[in-house]
What does this fold into?
Amino acid sequence: MSSLFIHDFAEEVHVRLSDLPELIKALVEAIGVSGFEGEVREKIHGLIPKGVECKVDSIGNLIASIGSGEPHIILIAHMDELGFLVSNIEENGYVRLRKVGSFDDRYIPGKVFQIHTKQGPVEGVVGLTPPHLTVDPETMKKVLQSHELYLDVGTRSKDETSDLGVKLLDPVTVRKEFRVVNGDYFCCRSIDDRFGCLALIETLKKLHSTDLKRKMTFVWSVREETGLEGARVIANTIQADKAIVVDSYPSADAPLMPFHLAPARLGDGPVLRVTDNGATANPELVDRAMDIAEKHGIPLGAGATGGMTDGLPLQEKGIPMVPITIPIRYMHSPVEMCHRLDLEKLIQLLAFAATEI
Ligand code: CO
It folds into this structure.
């Protein structure tokens, strides 16, 4: 394995990567519905090496800077996740939800949810009418929208629900349980983009004590899922020469979907998200990233896919950007999946890309 590595820090990283499942678990199980990223931000802040200058900007982005000189490179990954807010507490005690970001309605029924109240998590479930009580069988084929469903927190009245500590606008998530499937597949809600948050932390740890001849600004952004809001603030407040966006590549590597839509297999390495529904990466940065990966023997694919990233507002401000991603199955579901090897390779590649691009 070590023959692949050229730079000294690669070997040291490889050792630490045995801790990868524990590191990613801690980050994905933290709660960070868009606009409520505090817990994730604290966890990340706690993992940033001492002595690195950090700040939180007006919207809540966590920013750490190292090195000086040119070029100035931004590395950005988003802390937030899809979720819900309590939109109403009904007279019968049931709770209504409003979506934050584009959670897929098909995944809502049959799940355990957590309302993250000031007094701690309150659990509830969303159920459907059982076959035994279904009058019109056609209704069983219909996907109910989030606003049509109720969260059952086991109460009979509004007061009883309020007494549990539930308040309007409290953030809500599915109950998050990190799983390692068959040794190599990490599975949980919010793999997107906590793996990216982790990759930035590991890159910062590797580079902060090296003699950088350039400035690097690491950004853990907020509210990506609700319209790239955090990245817009970054685009308007930080002058930089280039940006590397670390986010997901929604992959079609599963039998349900046509592979040609987003052809990247989990376990085959990181992928440049060259084109998506929001932006096209800077062609020179794409070529440069490919060269760097090849030089260091790191597999790197390239592809198009749907959705958009924090790269869009940065690009709109004139900062050339490239998204370096890993393939994710079942995006925006409670069971997002990524592959351990892809994350390892991403962490290796980012340190090279940030110093050589
Ligand atoms: Co994402």
Remarks:
- Residues 3-81+189-356 form a domain with the Aminopeptidase fold (CATH 3.40.630.10).
- Residues 78, 192-193, 224, 247-248 surround cobalt (II) ion (CB under 6 Å).
- Residues 191-207 form the longest helix (17 residues).
